[in-house]
């Protein structure tokens, strides 16, 4: 583990990945160079110009991928280079002009204080031409980071970040494109690193002038797949490898001394409209499955691992209590197996053919559970959102 003795800005390297941003990259890079001694441009297979030629005669370092390999791969290539040169911190920012190099100065004090944190620049979305997709993407990413780690920050989609080189180089990362930026924050928290934030300004040109390498369908699909993998890993009961030792907390004794505080914490845990909706959807989905006698235990486990609202998840399962939902699943499963409905209900068809009924319950629940979860989740979201707006309006009046 590195120590922060004899801190100097010479330890900080600035990295600008670039892919076909010939009109903006030079000004951005040279502005960064005026603020930091070490600047690396990672040309990720640009075809619009010779990036190396743009910086001939300067001391800016240009690395190149012959073919486009994605933003994540570009950052990791720069990381390996910087580590080989003894760099301790790496600040990344975009080459399209969205970020202002002057904001680099906001990161430096936080790096001097702590080398066990990733610092994320939270974009101020109060300017002109902010795309609706960017607002939605930020909220979407923030929500899933909270589910995966229990940590909330204002803008986990921002690419203006400072990474501690030693720790980042020892994390196992698989994302190669924009999914890298979602993965690295989750795995950093699991490894024991902190997430810190600074407010930064951001500039967006008009939509017809905007140049972006983000491909909505492909990259959103990659990001969704990454979040699915991260949630799946989070559900596993195996501990994560820690790069920073966790402080020991006497949780049990604290709960015994302050049970009321625990109850209050459970009630407000992830209590945003989206958080409550996902909690309700998850509780409904699991409650519809044939998890006989262990529904509550499974729901509590999943809600705990994913930092969902346990009170909502556990109580919403009562909507799926027998007999209605199990019978609906069995009937649907029977129809899927036999092409007709189960009309004879007797001791023999229920208990004498119990294994058949359980299989049909499982089969039918694979259809009923996601449909019920979706309907309950949407309903809870709308109600919670309406209550939130009402409470907000009353607070203002």
What does this structure look like?
There is one protein chain. The chain has 397 residues and is an alpha/beta fold. It folds into two domains: 9-235, Spore Coat Polysaccharide Biosynthesis Protein SpsA, Chain A, CATH 3.90.550.10; 257-396, no CATH class. Helix content is 52%, strand content 10%. The protein has 16 helices and seven strands. It has a seven-stranded mixed β-sheet, with helices on both faces. Strand 1 (12-18), helix 1 (25-33) and strand 2 (38-44) form a beta-alpha-beta unit. The longest helix is centred in the C-terminal third of the chain and has 43 residues, at 354-396. The chain is elongated, with a radius of gyration of 26 Å.
